[in-house]
Each structure stands twice: as C-alpha cells, then as structure tokens.
Design goal:
By secondary structure, this protein is mainly alpha-helical. It contains 19 helices and no strands. α4 runs antiparallel to α5, α9 runs parallel beside α16 and α17 packs across α19.
Length: 528
Amino acid sequence: MTDTVPGAVASAESRTARRNVHPGILLFLIAGAQLMVVLDATIVNIALPSMGRYFDKSQTDMTWVINAYTLAFGGLLLLGGRAADILGRRQMFIVGLGLFSLGSFLGGISTTFELLLMGRIIQGIGGAIAAPTALSLITTLFDEGPARNRAFAVYAAVSGAGAAIGLLLGGLLTEYATWRWTLFVNVPIGLALMLGGFLYIHSSERLSGKFDILGSVLSVAGMVALVYGFINAANHSWSEGATVVSLTAGVVLLIVFALYESRSPIAMMPMRIFANRSRAGAYLIMLIIGAALFGMFYFMTFFIQGVMGFSALKTGVSYLPFTAVIIVGSGIVSQILPRVGPKPLITIGSALLTAGLFWFAQVDTATKYWTGVFPPMIVMATGMAMVFVTLTVVAVTKVTNTDTGLASALLNVGQQIGGSIGLAVLATAFASASRSEGSAQLSKLSGASEQHLQQLVASTQTGRPAPAAAYADQTAVDALHAVQAHGASQGFLVAAIFGIVAVVASIVLITVKKTDMEPVGEPVAVAG
C-alpha cells in the first residue's frame, strides 16, 4: 500500500519524481489536466461555424466534431480507468496527456474534415485515460478527510467551470486568431503538464491482473452504437432504419456487457462497485445531469449568437458569471457538506438546475440577456456547484485504492455519455420544434419574404450563406429568429424533464448521512 503523510500527500519513494512535494503542486497538475479535458468539450463549440465554412460542412455535419470526441471519450473511459489501476496512475497520466496533445496538434493542422475528426478521436482517447487517472490520483495522494475534501473542491470547481471557460477561450481565439488555435492551445499546456507529472507525481501501487478485452469491446461498441443511434435520430428520424438498428444494437450490447461483467473473473467493471447504493445513485444522477447540461451549453450558445446577435467573444464573456458562481460555490459547498450531508445538497442542487432549465425554456425573440439569460444562468450555476462537489465526493468515498480508477471513470462515463445522449435527444427536439414553427411562420408570409425565409432556413441547415436579399428582408429574418427561439425553447424543456428525473433519483437513491462524512477543513490554497 502507498504510505501517506497525515492530512497531506503521499510520500512514496521514486527515482524519477521529487520527494516532499508541496500538495499544491500536485493539485495544480491534476486540476490542470482535468481543466484541459473538460474545457475541450465546449472550446470548439464557438469555432464550429468557422470550421464549417473552412471545410464546407453544414451545421449538422459539424456536430461530428463534438461527437467524435465524446464518443471516443465516453466509450473508452472504463478502459482508461482500469488501465490506470493496472499500469500505474503516474504512467497513464503522462500517456493520456501525450495522446490528448497529439490529437490537438493533428486537429489544428488538418486540411481535410477526415483528419480533423481523426484528431478529435485521438483527443478523446487521451482524455479517456487522463480524466479518470487525474481523479484517482486525488484519492491516492490525499488522505481521506479535510485534505482530500479540499482537493475535491478544487477538482469539482475546475470540472464545473471548465465548460464555461472553454466557451470564453473559444470566443477569444476564434475572434482574434483562428479556429485552429482552439486545438493548438492544448499542445504547450499538455507538454508542460506531462513534464510536471514526470517530475513531481510518485508512482502508485498497481493492481496485478489482465485487461478485460472482451468487456472493453462490448462496452465501447454498445455505447458508440447507442450514442450514434441518438445522433442519427437527430439528423433523420426515430423511425429511420439506421436509428432503430443502432439503438437496438446498443441496448443489446450493453446488456450482454453487464451480464458478462457479472460473471467474468477479470471484469473491468466488477459489480461490487455498485453495491453502495449512494455511489450507484451518484453515477445515475451524473448521467442525467450530463444529458441536460451538454445540450444546454450547445443550444444556449447558438441561441445567444443566432437570435440575440452576440459575437463569439461576447458570447464567451456572457458565461463569465456562470464560471464565477461555480468556483465560489464549490468552495462553500465543500465546507458545509459534512454539516448537512450529501442528500440535501444533491437534491436542492438538482432542483435548482431544473428550475434554471425551465426558466430557459421561456426564451423567445424578445429575450434579453439581463432578464432572460443571466438569472437562470446563476440559478443553474448554483445548482451545479452543489451537485458536482457532492457527487464527486460520494462517488469515490470508501473506495479501495485498487478500484479508484474504475470509480472515477464511471463518474466521468456518466457525464460524457449522458452529455452525448443529451445533445442528440435535445437536437431531435429542437429539429422537430423548428420544423413545426417553420411551417407556421411560412404560412404567415407570402411573396419574396416567404422565399427569403426558406433560403434562410436552408442556410442554417447547410452552412452556406443565403442570398444577400434574404438577410436584408427584416420580416424574413424575424421569422427565422422565431423558428430558432421556439426550437431552443423546446430543447430546454426536454432538458428540464431530465432535471426532474435527477431530483427524484437523489431523493430515492442517496442514503449517505452527514455522520458518514469526514470533517472538511479550510479551502485549499494551491501553491506552486
């Protein structure tokens, strides 16, 4: 077992890592890796229109830039977490960051859409290794209690704020540089973190055993098929042959995976990990919340830019209050968690998330930032701070060191796969509502305005500009905004339904009492 310094950091000897490392340095490396992985889910969002114009791809085609990453990330997280347990967390931390940096470089230099997607897939593979390894390093380098809870507060703040930071950084890079820098920016950061990991992170104990190759194949194939089915439903329809086949295959493969894992002596996801009811509930709630939030970020960004007319940079800036509330709130929640217990925080946090989504569902063409976007954004950020900190602690508390990679990987699986499914489901709701509203708006127009609206709608679907006369026709433009606002409203409404399910799950499944929680100390100060 790895020896630890009480209340601080493990001091296992290593020939290549420095001893007596300040805990702030280790936490900086772990949080930096997590931030790089998390913000990548949104940093590319703002650059999608520029990428689409460069590669001559429609908005629908460009969803694959997001999905190529999330499919690889979510599909391989279980394997990545187990690899950290078997091959060593320090080694896999460095490997994961290396692959992520390589994928970012390939995406940045891409001159074809296929090379861009290849780079995104490699990024996803690297993230699938680095993310669960980073979280499991906290459980092995920091003792359970005040030190670990403070580390979790920083980790959760980075996880929750990373998406909004990505939107801001994406706006800056897209507006003042080029879309390629939304990918290139990861390369120097990744290399610096790799060097820091080599110098400062000590080797951890390894779990002897073999890789569960069949389980890996079943889980990856099942999740990819399931997510692809939802994506295809968004692009086509629920009854389309490929959608039905893919969804059915995904469900069947995942059932087979669960049955196989329950009997395999080398299972990468042993069923004992779900024996703790609260931990299983944390995974389920993260899946549901991920589904709501990923879709919310994607469609809120398009609404702010498309309907409200914000620039890429202004859109990013508009998310700064969201980031600030999560960072401050995470520190506060980490201190009150032992006093009130996890259940009230998760339940109230999920309820706030749901309330914010219902508020967002009221958007229309008259929505203003300070009255229709800022207030629900603050409500949601408060809920996220309460939920993410608490779920993170619940998911990995009382887990043996040999299972920390798996436990943290499952938490990330819930967020990433839930996010992929949520984006697809909300895209389907958005497309259906937009088609319905489009027909209603066309019936109100006639002559040139009717034709111009058709051209504007086609432009949003193909990525190719409509004739100048269409943009000059204010009646047609207003009608297009009505179509986009109605579609976004219905998407947010579906996301709010996801939120209701999360509230119910928190009430039914989270059973940890405040007496089970270790006392939490003062907020951690990250030192260099």
